[in-house]
Design a protein that fits this description.
Blueprint (H helix, E strand, L loop, with lengths): L1 H25 L19 H39 L2
Helix pairs in contact: 1-2
Length: 86
Amino acid sequence: MADEFAKGLGLLTGAGLIWMVLAGWYKTPSFSGAQLTGAPPSDLSMLGEAALILTESMFWLAIFGAALFWVGVPLGRQLYAGIGSE
């Protein structure tokens, strides 16, 4: 059980860190306005567009990765144990 917690925490912190860095670079227009959630600039290069896609991907990986290892895997093991004992 601790192994799943560590994997979920690793995904949450790793992907969350990458999301925060990229969102700080691309979605923080000023420090007096919206930070990390502002509108990205419209005149980005192909690398900037790829970074925005990676930003969104890391956000959802952090959310669903942690949920998978903290809820999904233990639930699957419980279901498998219940089916295997019958």
